[in-house]
Amino acid sequence: MEKKRLKKIGSETGVRCTSVRIIKRYKLDSPDCTGGKTERTTPPDRATEEMEKKRLKKIGSETGVRCKRTTPPDRATEEMEKKRLKKIGSETGVRCTSIPKIALTPVLFFNFRSVAGGANGIFTRRLDFSSFNALPKNKLNSYQIKTEDEGNHGNDDTRCFILSTLASQGRSRVHCVLCEDQLLVFDRYPLVDGTFFLSPRQHAKSCIEVKVEGRTQFLSVVCMGCLEGASGRAIRCRFCNQHWDGTSLVLGTMYSYDIFAAMPCCTERIKCNACYKPVLHPSQRLNFFSDYSHMVPCPHCRTLDTHFVKPLSFCYARLPLRSLQMWP
Ligand SMILES: [Zn+2]
Ligand SMILES: [Zn+2]
Ligand SMILES: [Zn+2]
Fold this sequence. Notes:
Headcase protein, Headcase_mid, four-stranded mixed beta sheet, Headcase
């Protein structure tokens, strides 16, 4: 029953839940994210070992990740680079499978052990969950707030992707695309007091360009207050007047699609960006939330575009609507 329920939630939210726990049970000092402690199995000769130690120490001081053993860096091709990262990952416990384009040279890692403001660990260590106290009590669970890595040993792909992308830009803070408030980024889940998402459109200057599976995307953030429609932050569709509701989105993690495009409220939201005729029949809806972030050809003018992903200022107005104030 539990598995089915989690699967259903997963398919609806795009976030896979493996377990559900009450937040207060979450231990901040769980033994993951320690950088790994893989011991070698065969003892090499002493001279080689000494050389290796020196080299690793150098790499460690450059990347902020202490390695027991690794392979010599080779940045000739991306393929080689990927293999090296995979190997480093298996030995250090910091696995980077999604490599942001910008992070390839030099390879940047982050030190999970550092507390806020360190030279390498630029991300903040969350000391408690008090920032979520504004939420209704029934939302303080791991359905609504992502608290744990997928899998063991701090190898979570999403977290690694977000932190390495931000680290490569030297950014420990992000900005909400709606209210522009500054948000701290934390080194563990929940990564932010809001949620990250990927969009094919750059909603704000602060959104970082990334390549995901060959497609150009922008790493974007919405804060908790805007998701919850807190006073003065609620937004409505400028065409049908419907309130945009982000309360069902899981906090502290990342959606791989544009969360504003995912639930088109009216015909204006499904029109072609070139000829302004509806790309879908008014009653037609796509199967998955992520389908609305993909390139589709317009059936009328054949223009290939992410037609459902519109500029936020075009779609939304802040409350109260009577003043007809455009967002922001
Ligand atoms: Zn906001
Ligand atoms: Zn609408
Ligand atoms: Zn068209």
